[in-house]
Amino acid sequence: MNRLCPLLLVALIVAVGASAQSQTTLPQAPGAIVTNLTPKPGPFTEPGVAVNPLNPRQVVVVFQVKAQAAYSENSGRTWELAKGVAPKHYKISGDVSTVFDNKGHAFVSCIAFDKLGTFNYWGHGATRNGIFVRRSLDGGKTWEPELRTVIAQPTKPGIPFEDKPYLVADTSKSKYAGSLYVGWTRWTLTDSRMLFTRSTDDGLSWSKPIEISQVRGLPRDDNGALEGFDGAVGPNGTLYAVWAFNDHIIFTKSKNGGKTFSPARNLVHTAPAMFAVRGMDRANGFPQIAIDPRGGAKGGPIYVTWSDYRNGEVDIFCIVSKNHGRTWSAPIKVNDDSVHDGAEHFFQWLAVDPVSGAVNVVFYDRREYPKNQTQIVVLARSDNGGKTFTNYAWTSKPFNPKGVFMGDYLGLAAWGNRVYGAWPSKPTPKSKTVLQVGVADFSKP
Fold first, then answer.
1. 19: enclosing H helix or E strand
2. How far lies 246's CA from each of 267, 273, 431, in Å?
3. pLDDT digit string (tens) for 400-411?
4. What structural domains and CATH numbers belong to the chain?
């Protein structure tokens, strides 16, 4: 397991100037800066990004493995690696996500375990594992030594494996403000379940988990399982949640701080959530959800993004609800290349800017590489409520992901027309990954 040097101030800026522009015909993301967070290649994947709503100059990026974090105190101009993020008493930790709460405290959640069960059948032969949260009171610079347990399974026959948690914070001014939520997949020997828990004391303690799906899925990390929880909170404290199941995106909401949920229902029919992409160990189109908090007590439009291959190639899609989830638009294609051009676009992540309302989506893009072997990172942006998206190149030099695990997702956050993305890349064909963070600035004309 590679261990990063935590004292290094990381300022390895990747050029995005005229020489790089010739490698793509897409317009460059305005004010684009790309920084290598990891000084040397390693097994770095699955990032998350969060901006402090009380001090937007503070940005945190988390990634695996083990669970790690970097922070910026100047809106992403420079970054530094943090210490003491991973659980100390487990061999492996990952599946990270991060949020800031309404007090300006940063949190990172992760799973931790000693070894996996049977390949893709994680509940079979599972050893001790759990979901854990750590808190930072200074914008991600230092992390408290106290590791807070969301749920933990001791080693014994037949235990489940807790997987793919995602952390959500209520930063509204509602009576549920300050609440933290975690949704995740529980793998058992016989099925997969979508579980949920909440904390009302800054992550110190967590409620007894509840199932928020009325049905259970198949027990393998593949199509037919319940996977890919994501959530968003409106200004009145309503929590909206989505995940993937049986070629559908499932939607539910809670109006009482996560105590109970509306019956989960199919939102849109998709192609299978898991699919093959050339050169990748695995790829998926799990959904994300975000809300524009402007627009009254209940907030503005709600957006859901995902990827699937209904057009033959893998494309990114977005649907919009203007009535708080009752009805939804037809799917809108986010990547703006031609339909049926055969190009793959995947590992999307969604962020709605709470200041401007702009909709931002990051993803890997292969439109200019006909053999679908190499990819760049693209940022798509909509300023008209998701009706249309303009695509920008966030990186320009393509890389081939073959030979390494690229994870399951990228990371994205936005504030005040500054957008922050994080992704794994490969500096050479035979190297492992480096974790990169990109900044794009749409605040200037």
1. helix 18-21
2. 12, 8, 36
3. 999 999 999 999
4. 9-441 (2.120.10.10)
